[in-house]
Design goal:
Layout (H helix, E strand, L loop, with lengths): L1 H16 L7 E10 L2 E8 L4 E7 L14 E10 L2 E10 L5 H17 L4 H12 L12 H19 L6 H4 L10 E3 L2 E8 L5 E5 L11 E17 H11 L3 H11 L13 E11 L23 E5 L12 H7 L4
Parallel strand pairs: 7-9
Antiparallel strand pairs: 1-2, 2-3, 3-5, 4-5, 6-7, 8-11, 9-10
Protein name: PD-(D/E)XK motif protein
Pfam family, one: DUF4420
Organism: Cryptosporangium minutisporangium
Length: 331
């Protein structure tokens, strides 16, 4: 069975990639069932890989957020017109997909042997595979930590303004999207600098490109190490008290490389936000984007450049940065 399932899974992802949906999950049934229906592979619009295991309405909720990039949640889905509860095992990291495929085989084989106790099978297999699913590098590096805190401070600002509904539709940075936040027709790109920094790195020709009918705001968080500041776990805990979508917040944090199980490793590293700046990207804002060149050679596969904002700081809406980020209002 092992080889047959492994082959089905590999072929399944290729088939699903040809019909990736917008905002939903494309699914493919597997030749194994629980007591509530067939197990299925799922591919969502962000490219994350899912194993969906149907369970009954009275089955206990199954959840696990301890792994950095593999999460387990229980949620209802409508697939082929049928609404069922599913245990959703999802992997967010492309570099872990091969390992996740092997874990799927172990899960499916476990379910085939014990279709009535899906939750127990998932808990057992996930524990066995947890170390293999830990991303290389362990804790977040300093730059990654500061960048994540900067984005979370903007998320906190948006939450205080009542703009946070479903977190993963708003906070799109962890999904490797072009911009960090998407608020309808307005996007916000967040950069974090140190106490004296004024230079930010722009990734690609799309990052500061403003599409037709859209607005783009560049936000810069000045973050300084401070003994009386806030740590990453403290910031996360504050967000959990104000944001209703805790599952979505957990998913996005996991994609960014942070899980509660690692909280104690970050508590001693505290920071304070000493300044917040924001610019509305307009035709005169200095940048390179897709309109800067008549044509980009196909051999150029990536563009990255540094932008010094020191001379632009007096023109930033430092006092009204929050208003510009939340509403797009420059007045």
């Amino acid at each position: 069975m092992n080889d047959d399932i492994a082959s089905t899974v590999r072929i399944g992802w290729r088939l699903l990639a040809t019909r990736r949906p917008e905002g939903t999950i494309a699914t493919l049934d597997l030749p194994v069932s629980t007591q509530s229906g067939p197990a299925a592979l799922g591919l969502d619009s962000r490219g994350d890989h899912h194993l969906l295991l149907p369970i009954s309405e009275d089955h206990a909720t199954v959840e696990d957020g301890k792994s950095a990039h593999v999460r387990v949640d229980t949620r209802p889905l409508i697939i082929d017109g049928h609404r069922r509860r599913y245990v959703d095992v999802v992997c967010h990291r492309p570099d872990l997909f091969d390992v996740f495929d092997e874990m799927i085989v172990a899960l499916v084989e476990g379910v085939a042997d014990a279709p009535a106790v899906v939750g127990e099978v998932v808990a057992r297999v996930l524990q066995q595979w947890r170390e293999l699913l830990r991303p290389s590098g362990g804790v977040l590096r300093e730059g990654e930590l500061r960048g994540l805190i900067g984005e979370l401070l903007i998320l906190q600002l948006l939450a205080e303004a009542g703009l946070v509904g479903l977190v993963d539709r708003l906070w799109t940075g962890p999904d490797r999207a072009v911009h960090d936040f998407t608020l309808g027709g307005r996007c916000v790109e967040v950069k974090t600098v140190g106490s004296r920094g004024s230079t930010v790195t722009i990734h690609g020709l799309d990052q500061l490109h403003v599409g037709p009918g859209h607005e783009l705001v560049l936000a810069v968080v000045r973050l300084e190490a401070a003994a009386d500041g806030v740590s990453l776990p403290e910031l996360v805990e504050a967000l959990e008290r104000t944001i209703g979508d805790l599952a979505g917040l957990g998913r996005q944090l996991a994609k960014a490389g942070y899980v509660h199980a690692e909280a104690d490793r970050y508590r001693a590293r505290k920071f304070t936000q000493s300044a917040l700046y924001a610019w509305k990207i307009d035709p005169v804002f200095p940048r390179l984007d897709v309109n800067s060149f008549a044509a980009v050679p196909t051999e150029v596969v990536a563009v990255r450049y540094d932008l010094d904002l020191a001379g632009l700081t007096p023109h930033a809406t430092a006092g009204g940065a929050a208003r510009l980020i939340c509403t797009g209002d420059l007045s």
